[in-house]
Specification:
400 residues, alpha/beta, binds pyridoxal-5'-phosphate, Aspartate Aminotransferase, domain 2, 2 domains, 4-stranded antiparallel β-sheet, Aspartate Aminotransferase, domain 1
């Protein structure tokens, strides 16, 4: 029996809640149906040319062998300089570990600092992999719900009200996936002070730090002061900023002892990340940032359009994201409505309805631990967004 073979920890992982929708979307695609997907959280832009050229040069130069597990010294130095330049944080290269995307960095953080009996406090909605990664580390994810009327921004009162002595770490993701919300500086300071006083680590996932609109500013927890820096582990990635999702370059920075332990773990799990991608990452961080500015400007226009269109459709209501490329849309008013004999009763049903009747794929809120909503991605061309939202609007009008 296969079920007896699977370890308890892996058997305990839920399949990704996004899988159901992707599976159905792919099935329809194979049947020749033109599906517009607002489901995949990745840039539609190509990786900038200067970065690709650096990778090609690395291949030509034969830079194709194992490297140091935590990354080549030039890349760790480039990341340390980036932290100083952009975030105002002084990290030594030895405090930086280059990982296979932000995802591996997060996994290694949980695996390194958490164990059975520990809890990790997370504001919901949140990124799909946190809970399962924390469970794999033997710890327990504990969620509290941020409020739609606060634009899903977490605040101090919520952290205080949900605090327990078992909490080992607090997980912050600003800008947030799936809402795009950015935590207010005052709240961040209050939360950080409260946690640091209680010896709680702050794991800060900053992968969307550059995708910010309306002149808002990203603030790294570790830049708030020495104590905050000692108690935080910053996770970041080149995936979203530089349209490099497939290259798998992310990193973690934090106290030396933690980074060293994570390095030991990585050394036995995957070793170094791809050598060629490391050379490309140096160019991404040190080279011209013009392509990032162009992409962010374009995302900003698409955000404007998508938010206005979604809020113009009766029965749905979306938030105004401060950053990232997501809108989190309230679909509760569609519950109880009917199409082809099906009654909509949940956000999963809404996602199915959009897929079957509008041929549009979105991710239901339950995947982010927050039901009643669906996530739309606006990292798509304006034409695709327009066509997709026309279809959604038409399908909703036809509901009974
Ligand atoms: C909030 C958040 N963190 C981390 C990641 C991981 O990204 P990557 O592993 O490509 O760096 C993602 C990807 O969607 C994300 O949305």
């Amino acid at each position: 029996m296969i079920s007896n073979v699977i370890s308890k920890s892996v058997a305990g992982i839920s399949p990704s809640a996004t899988e159901g929708t992707s599976f159905m979307a792919n099935k329809l695609k194979r049947e020749g149906i033109d599906i517009i997907s607002f489901a995949q959280g990745e840039p539609d832009f190509d990786t900038p040319d200067n970065i690709k050229k650096a990778a090609i040069a690395a291949i030509k130069a034969g830079f194709t062998k194992y490297t140091d597990v935590p990354g080549i010294p030039e890349l760790r130095k480039a990341v340390a300089e980036k932290f100083k330049r952009e975030n105002g944080i002084e990290y030594e290269p030895s405090q930086i570990l280059i990982c296979n995307g932000g995802k591996q960095a997060l996994y290694e953080v949980f695996r390194t600092i958490c164990e059975e009996g520990d809890q990790v406090l997370i504001p919901a909605p949140c990124y799909v992999s946190y809970a399962e990664q924390i469970k794999l580390a033997g710890a327990e994810p504990v969620f509290f719900k941020t409020k739609e009327e606060n634009n899903f921004r977490p605040n101090f009162e919520e952290v205080e009200a949900n605090f327990t002595p078992k909490i080992k770490a607090f997980l912050l993701n600003s800008p947030n996936n799936p809402t795009g919300s950015i935590i207010e500086k005052e709240q961040l300071k209050k939360i950080a002070t409260f946690l640091v006083e209680r010896g709680v680590y702050i794991i800060t996932d900053e992968v969307y730090e550059h995708l910010i609109y309306d002149d808002r500013k990203h603030i790294s927890v570790a830049s708030l002061g020495e104590k905050e820096k000692e108690m935080s582990i910053t996770v970041n990635s080149l995936s979203k900023t530089y349209a490099m999702t497939g290259w798998r370059v992310g990193y973690a920075a934090g106290p030396k002892g933690i980074i060293k332990a994570m390095n030991n773990l990585q050394g036995h799990a995957t070793g170094n990340i791809n050598s060629i991608a490391q050379k490309a990452a140096i160019e991404a961080l040190n080279g011209s940032q013009e392509s990032v500015r162009i992409m962010v400007k374009e995302y900003g226009k698409r955000r404007e359009y998508m938010v206005n269109r979604l809020n113009g459709i009766e029965g749905i209501k979306c938030n105004y994201p401060d950053g990232a490329f997501y809108t989190f849309t309230n679909v509760i008013a569609l519950y109880g409505k009917e199409y082809d004999g099906n009654i909509i009763r949940s956000d999963v049903d809404v996602a199915k309805f959009f897929l079957n009747k509008a041929h549009v794929a979105v991710v239901p809120g339950v995947a982010f631990n927050y039901s009643g909503y669906v996530r739309f991605v606006f990292a798509k061309s304006m034409e695709v967004i327009k066509e997709g939202l026309d279809r959604v609007e038409k399908a909703i009008k036809e509901l009974k």
